[in-house]
Amino acid sequence: MNKSDADRIAPAEHGAPAYVRLSRTETEALCLKATRGAGYSWGIAEEAGAATGWLCANGVDGTDALLAVLDAPGMTAPEAAPENWSSPEGRALCPLLTGAALVDFAPLPGGPLHARTLLGPVRQPVLLLPFLSACAEDLGTSVQLEWSGHTLLIGQAIHATPQAIAALTGAALAVVTIARVDHPEPPAAPAPCAVAQQKTVQALEDLALRTTVPASDASRNSGAGAGTSDND
Amino acid sequence: MAQVMDHSSPVPAEFYRSPDQVMRLSRMGSAHPMRLSFLRILLRRVQAEGWQFSRTHWEMDDKGVGRAVYRAKGPQRSYSLVAFAHDLPAEKRSDRVIATAWDATFALFDGEPTLADLDRLQANVPLQEAGRITNRELSLSRANHSVRLFRHVVDALAEGRQPDLAEIDAVGYLMRTTAVYGSGKFGAADRGQIADRPELSAPFQAEMLSVWLTRWFTVDVANHMALVKGGAKAATLDLDICHKLGVGNSTGLGMAPFLIRHPLLINNWIAAREEALARVRALDVASDAAVAGVRTALADAITNAAHWHSEHPIQVKRLADLRSDLGHLKAYLQDWPKGAKPWNTLWQWGQDHLSQEGQEALLAIMIEPHGDLIDGLADCMSADERRGFRINGAMGVGALRALLQTHYAWALNVDFDQPGQVAQFWYVSEEKLEPRLGDRAAEDGADLEQPLCIARLAQSLFEALQGRDDAEPVASFLLAQPEHRLMVRRAQQAAIFPFSEVRDNLIAKDMLPIDLMRCKLAFFGASHFDPRSDKWVRISLFHGAPYPFEFNGGGGS
Known about the structure:
Helix content of chain B: 40-55%
Mean pLDDT of chain A: 89
Shape of chain A: globular
Oligomer: heterodimer
Largest interface: A-B, 50 and 65 residues
Largest sheet of chain B: 9 strands, mixed
Order of helices and strands of chain A: HEHHHEEHEHEEEHEEHEH
Shape of chain B: globular
Distance between the termini of chain B: 42 Å
Number of domains of chain B: 3
């Protein structure tokens, strides 16, 4: 944790701290449940958890981007056409469904990384990065994402200027170009785990609560250990 | 898995048990602790590496309120149990996860804490789930007294005498933990941060170390309170009585879904154990030392079974079976099996003459004297779960269908139109965010069912695949039907990791969650499994084991 992070996470004089450092495990668990709570399938929720956890471990806070997707889940899946992934009606693609499909289609002949592929418009495109990392690992190469004059190289880590990462993280909608790059991934310094905004975490927790069942007297009384004394 | 099978002289297939035999709830619910259990792995390592243990901090008042630090010093790194003792009113003492206060709370610190660390932890650890810890901490836990035994021990010691052995045996621990959280929970260090450290690479080593040091703390607190009460005439607890005390543990439904949610991990645990059994069965001869080792292990098992109490009808029956089985085994072993492959002869005899409880006990007994042959398997029991996460989208639908027929026949055969096969559902309670089991016919919430009903999910996937072209790639199937993604992932994993699925219907009316718990707890090394209902259980950890300070070449606490 660097000094400025510590200052941000430290409890404010009045009220709750503005930022919180979740562990990767916590990020994954929270984002999985929130995604399910927003109505996605369990398998896509698992992808969302893993993706946000990967971003967190690579120093990028993806919780805001995920929350933006979950707050208005369009759930538009791409049509996987050669060299062009978009929705038939031109609607904005869901980055979770798109990312999962990128990984699934990557090993197929004519997959999205066999040629340069134009992809989008896709919502919260920063969420594609973990999936592109998985594609890169599968194909034994690196993947390049170009967008709005920025270039990001994705392998096991993210290789880009802080400005490019910040710009992508802040983008609500983008059309991007992805392509495989057949040269070895440069070494990357380990990134500190990302810090999330407390209010975002709270909003994700609220979504996660939608996966839970309120207690009733019956369920309380039939729970493990109910009705017994532990003063023995 | 590949590691496990990569043994210098491969064991013939005939000596292995199949997943269909091993991964059944009733057999998993008969599991026994054994050499490859996680606390045994920890104890072997600290002995082999000459770890040193000391109590480095002790601040405790006359009410038994205060804090203490216990340090474990290994060849490369140190770890410290930071313990906080509280004055808990009886009406607040609850082992349930809904409790908010405990007799003692703990964190395992990565290194040696400064006073500032202790103060930071003191502001958070006593709150447990409501506090925050950091990546300097590896676990968070709490424990409650056995009120009856703690009082008895303190009273006896205060009067200058040792406690009554019958009381010690009847309970078996001074404190029981009610939760031990690790792996990134509540801000703690992620597993990835520590997984490459040799001393923590096997599963649950930080948690086991924490509980083992907690056991030492429980004895120190009892001695402290006896001294407060008895003054100069107080005695300290004899070491041989200390050995009869483990750390109790009270576990509810929270633990049960773990085995389902971590298919690669459970595969590697079971695969290591099954490999150990197969290696022993395949041996051509039995050395005198190994035969003697088996007889000692059997005698220990008989003693253990005699001291193992439960009032749960299922466990009462299983205990009766076990005691009877161990008697038969002792009689059978009056004459060691003659001929080639004597270990396999012994195993086959067990298959024909023992209950499942006895068969699984025999497994633990047979592998006990074969440390040289099997202890290395401890290195194969952890799992990089991200490895199995990626779906193979290039697989054809026909291949996926065939894979389900091969590895999920047990699931495809279940008739889910029968109410008894869907009688229960797993859900998470809003109140405590903990897994629970509901009665589908009588309770609300089935629309929020957790995806632990694997048999049903597999059947549903199989039905969705009907009528699709064999050549269609899974990638395109999942693009059309993302709701099957979780099950496709599991099925592809199961094709590679044969012990990844519990091969029973986990929502059937007769499904007992305690079977899942027993399997996991046996891998921890727990003994004295005592179900208090179908849904929760008490056990003991480190019962009969040495204390950390005994590894210091005779030093005491």
